Amino acid sequence: MVHAFDCLGHSFLLDVESGSVFIVDSLTKALIENHDSPVDYSKGEFSRYTATEIAEAGEEIDALIKEGVLFSPEPPHKKPEYAGIIKAMCLNISHMCNLRCEYCFADGGSYSGAMTNMSFEVAKNAVDFLIAKSGGRRNLEIDFFGGEPLLNFDVVKRTVAYARGLEKEKNKNFRFTITTNAMLLDDDAIDFFNKEMYNVVVSIDGRKSVHNSVRKTVAGEGSFDAAMKNALNFKAKRKGQYYVRGTYTALNKDFSKDVLYLNDCGFDQISIEPVVLPENHRLAIHKSDVPELIEEYDKLVNEYFRRRKTDKWFNFFHFMIDIYHGPCETKRLVGCGAGNEYVAVAPNGDIFPCHQFDGDADYKIGNVLDGTFDNRIPEKFALNNLLEKKDCRDCWAKYYCSGGCAANAIHYCGDINKPYKITCELMRKRIECAIAVNSLEKSK
Length: 444
Hints:
It contains 15 helices and 14 strands. It is an alpha/beta fold. α9 packs parallel to α15 (421-442).
């Protein structure tokens, strides 16, 4: 399978199975697009070229096919199996939040349950559980999530100290990350993050009007001024990786303006994600919105590519693809590993496939306090791979998205093996943009 597309004023070919990427002229692109069809070389795009030019381009294509980097066959895949090994954990350290974001899947941070913080006892047991389930894996990851993790900052600190204290004894290396809405992001937190957090995600949706329309305080007031002030202070002092992450909704389908606004504010690591909500929600993105959103990604990638040559250079998370050093085969087939190599733990110790399942009794795997662990759900999630997804097998982007989000598939399609199609269309566009940027920058 070969995917041909245009972006940033150039034409590209992606050979799906080999991963080869080519920047090509319009003739080569046209020949590839008509490779399996009868062609009248006197018409259309081909009428612009001589018979010699067409023959030479055809010979180059044939040589690449012979080399195995164009129209390459799908190789045999080793079917992923459940190994019972966990390497990453999300600690929902707080089911409380000081904001009431309208699109929040966690129902104001409570996950439709009691507003409570995780105790150190639960966090300690969760760390012990991760170590016990990690087998021979040395590098482990813990992500502090919520709600708002800084509402339980003391337990975050104690948990990190506890895990660090076990590293040498257990031959483990912990990498910590945290996501915060920045409302409590003071110098004490920044100092701790610089010391211990490999990555910090700060939630800001972009322009003040956009942010304040959906990210409100408990009192119903806009949160932008406080969040931005703290985020800018954080950026100035941050030593290490970070992202300012936003969500775009039906209210700001011109989201490229929000990305560029954040860059204008001084942030150089940015992510803006499409919201995923039930169709009847006022902020939901619908299939009819997709063409407009695809055009918006075109606007963004053009300005993004231009700015990366200036003092406003920045990374946009979804445009970051390494076409030379992609993930291993297993990662390409299974994606994030939710419910399999990755789990989430709620404040009461319950274990779920990921944070988006927190509170859903049908997807409770066990509990870190009583030691229960039902392998049936992880085994089901281990089968959540490209080899089992009929809708993904013929998609050119399959090895980049690995079948998409399991939570979205279950919550919006009713089946872990049915990808959420709106997300698919947007993902494919982002991947095209990412390949184009990466190819053009690396080809210089």
